[in-house]
Write a structure and sequence with these properties.
This protein is an alpha+beta fold. The protein has a single domain, classed as 60s Ribosomal Protein L30, Chain: A (2-Layer Sandwich), CATH 3.30.1330. The chain is built from three helices and nine strands, in the order E-E-E-E-E-H-E-H-E-E-E-H. The strands form two sheets. It has a five-stranded mixed β-sheet with strand order 2-5-4-6-7, covered by helices on one side. Strands 1-3-8-9 form a four-stranded mixed β-sheet, with no helix packed on it. A hairpin with a 4-residue loop joins strand 4 and strand 5. The longest helix has 15 residues. It starts with a strand and ends in a 9-residue tail after the last helix.
């Protein structure tokens, strides 16, 4: 039986058992790591590129989350040379008024790619940039990612179990 897990922004999930890791991403970036030898994976959902000197360094930042994601995989028995990555997100959605003028997605993409290079993790698939957010399902047992692009991301996409109805 496959477990379903929703990965919130700033969260890292490592799944040794067959799992469907799900996320919704706009200007942030999702990193899926897969162990080619042991055939299991993990996901990190980053919102920002890197902390500036005034913020607390958490896993909401790609520069913090990626080294921790790699370390958690290795703590569970993975070897660095067996890891591969797939990366998604970094959109600049035109319908989201605030994000129209922001280069947040582009900056986050650059930091993610740089961190993965520094960690010596090859990227085998990517769907980055553009104007649309994405809904993702990462099937860890098969290293398959389903990507659904969307014009609108509803509140219930970000927070499963909530309603989009206005009262």
């Amino acid at each position: 039986m496959i477990e379903n897990r929703y990965v919130q922004p700033g969260q890292i999930v490592v799944a040794r058992a067959p799992t469907a890791l799900k996320a919704v991403v706009g200007p942030g970036v999702v990193i899926c790591l897969w162990d080619t030898k042991r055939q299991w994976g993990a996901m990190a959902h980053c919102v920002y590129p890197e902390p500036n000197g005034k913020t607390v360094a958490t896993t909401r930042y790609a520069s913090v989350a990626i080294p921790l994601l790699v370390q958690r995989m290795m703590d569970e028995g993975a070897q660095r040379e067996d890891l591969v990555a797939k990366v998604f997100g970094g959109a600049r959605p035109s319908r989201w008024r605030f994000w129209r003028r922001s280069d947040l997605g582009r900056h986050t993409i650059a930091v993610v790619l740089s961190c993965l290079r520094r960690e010596q993790i090859p990227i085998i698939a990517e769907d980055l940039g553009g104007r649309r957010g994405r809904r993702l399902v990462f099937l860890t047992e098969e290293n398959r990612v389903r990507v659904m692009r969307t014009h609108d991301i509803r509140k219930s996409d970000w927070y499963p179990g909530t309603s989009d109805r206005r009262t």
